[in-house]
Amino acid sequence: MLKIINATTVEFNLGNLVFRWNPEKAKKNLHKHHVSFKEAASVFLDENLYVDRDGTHSWEEERFNATGYSKKDRILYVCHCYRERDDGVDIVRIISAREATKDEISQYNQDISEEVRQ
Questions:
Q1: Angle at 78 (CA atoms; ends 57, 4), nearest 5 degrees
Q2: pLDDT block averages, 10 residues each, the chain of length 118
Q3: CB 5 within 8 A of CB 19
Q4: Against a cut of 0.85, is the pTM above it?
């Protein structure tokens, strides 16, 4: 269930994870990429989630990109950052989400292969 925090922020709990995003940004993302931020949040449940730093898009905050399987069995690429709520709870702020490209899927699969070999 979505919880409205204010005009520019909604919160969504999935298991023990807490996500936040801008509802207008989520609406535009759904229209452009056909991926809801609720579905995007589900990639964080993927036990093989691949996360790396995004050093190219923001100098104001540290951003990350996650690649993983969603609840709809699609491999998604999710731009996000980590923040802390006023009460100290860690949250994941979703910035954008789309289906992963062939190169991103290849990197995801390579990361899984390396973990299996270890």
A1: 100
A2: 94 95 98 98 96 78 95 98 94 98 94 68
A3: no
A4: yes
